[in-house]
Structures
1.
Amino acid sequence: MTTMATSVSIGRKPDPVTLTDDAAAKVAELLAQEEGDDLALRVAVKPGGCSGYSYEMFFDAETADDDVTRDFGDVRVVVDPASAELLTGATLDYSDGLQGAGFHITNPNATRTCGCGSSFS
């Protein structure tokens, strides 16, 4: 009789979205202007937009048991499980230049993006 052993590594899931230092600093600045100490930045993907999906970002005081939560300094980021699958490996950046200020998501899972910058497929 032969016995076979299999090793399974159960670790932390990859970050659904990573914040650059500039994005984390801007989110922390915006959070400081809000009321409530328990607010987190929720990043979500919703059906819609010109390419099939669109990004949503807002401050949220509520988290679900199955939300993926990551901390970037003083900023807590929360992502629901369905959005996490579409965002894995994505980076949220903030720029404040002559071409316009704002947040931008670079998502390696997006096969097509729209000119508006907030829609992908």
Note: Residues 21-32 form the longest helix (12 residues).
2.
Amino acid sequence: MSFECIKYEVKDGIGWITFNRPEARNALSRQTWAELMQVLTDTYDDYTVRALVITGEGTAFSAGLDIKEMSTVGFKGLGEFLSVILDPIELLQRYPKPVIAAVNGHAYAGGFELTLFCDIVVASDKAVFAFRENRRGLMSGLLIIRAHEYNMRFVKELTFTGRAIDANEAYRMGFTNKVVSHKDLEKEVTALCEEIKLVAPLSQKLTKEFLRRGIREIGALWEPFNELFRSEDVIEGFEAWLEKRPAEWKGR
């Protein structure tokens, strides 16, 4: 796959997506969103790719939506612009494999909100987070979809003020899973991915799906457990345990 606004490579079964517009602080243009959509689509059922990592080139993760580009489309083109955003976000919500945000620097506005749709967020100690849209007369729309997963008082504080917070405060508020040394960010995320690869991909897929659907009734679990018990991976998992060897997952 060849791209203009992102870099994509697979390393040891992990797909690495790097926003590659450092001169624009990795602002999310329509082309960036389209390329993200392509990677998500192409890897959706490809279980040679066990997880995706999203990060940024240079000193920013992403400064958010490309405001310069938005200003050129006018009100008539704004709906089309938003649809280009919502399609990959919707796909990201139901993507069947773990998605990790490796936040290497500034994650502002849409860049911050994008991390909310990732399953795990690992932040460099140089990362800075802010919901800046309200300072431009806009609203953090994508945040609203995910706000229920976070402490609402912190959500209100950050959106009502647009204040920037460092990585440690973002961790305290529950927006990141961990904060690591900037120089160790890739190493730490790679180690996390190695742990992810130890788990059966079908188990991860069904867990993600049912967490997203917010299942609360015990009876609803029969469906995924029946699917798991019929899978090749369950047989492989038990055989690997009995034979004291690593499992070789097939994703089926």
Note: The domain at 6-196 is CATH 3.90.226.10 (2-enoyl-CoA Hydratase; Chain A, domain 1).
3.
Amino acid sequence: MSDGAAHVPMGPGLRLLTLRVRTEDVVLVRGIFAGYDGVASVHGDQSGLVALLATDSTFAELEAIVDGLPQGVVLERVR
């Protein structure tokens, strides 16, 4: 199994939120975050792990968006 966060570039001022989602919802999650320009970059594949990389200043907004995702999409917050 692949880790959606394995190739995420990290550095000062960046925060990572990794989610386990249903594999059929990976594309949905990527599409939702594509509509929120500048909030987070999305890294993942069809393994069901999606890594969301945000800055310190956009992390609260990222968490609010994740909390608002349709019920059942996010199976678990991994880290």
Note: The chain has a mean pLDDT of 85.
4.
Amino acid sequence: MFGYIKPLSGELKVREFELYKAFYCGLCKTMGKNISHFSRLALSYDMVFLVLLRSVLICGGETAEIINKPFRCKLKPAKKRSHIKPNEALLYSSCTAAILMYYKCIDDIRDTKNKLKKLLYRIPALFFSRMKKKACVFYPGLDEKIRVPLAGLNRLEKENCKSIDGTASCFAELMQNIMRFGIESVEQSRIAGHIGRHMGRWLYIIDALDDFDKDIKKGEYNPFGEYYDKNKNNILKDMDIIRDSLTSSLHEVSIALCLADSKNSKNNKAISGIMPVIENIVNLGMSEQQEKILRKFKT
């Protein structure tokens, strides 16, 4: 479900790409320090976007300070790397990633029919269960905000729901909850929620399209498979409508980002450095991912 929210790196300036990598490494280090070294398995581009957005909305970009003392990554020690100084946005994203990974493990256990795989999935689930408890200490109430919409989504998928928007709305609610959790400002919370809702809808639909062939082959649930009678040719007939619907969601996210990048933000050098990276991810990176996946359905 995750892994689609990433920048088009070739269109980033050098300093912007270095900033993005510093956020990525900062998140990795925060996960290892505050949750568990094992929790770094939950590190994803999507969580880096969450850090970037909350750095703008909550931290005002002021805490997006790159530590000048580079370090060597244990996985890629050849080159020294910089990272963002620990802040609230990094901690929140670390906790969110741990909770989401726990529920992914539970979902894998529930979905697989292979007894051996069920047993194997229980091992990481045990570790992430402990990490989830740590995350809940930092952010009480976050677990419920994630668990409830996921339970609704699971129920609809078990019922082989034919409504694509019906299942997508559950994931949209999940992302909305994640994006705006703990934001005290009503205006900023509304902006974060709008971004989360439309990004969640886009994510669910694009992931369903990406997994269509695999899901049909394995006999697993796919909203497009249910709605279009598992016939790829039927999807091709509505491809223009599907593309317009996805593009509309991205447009809504872009509009909300314009509100986040207010006049006051433009006078903040820290935020003015982060916003081009966020805009690249939404306007170029996600659009590129969308077209890459839609090309699979070309005749």
Note: The mean pLDDT is 88.
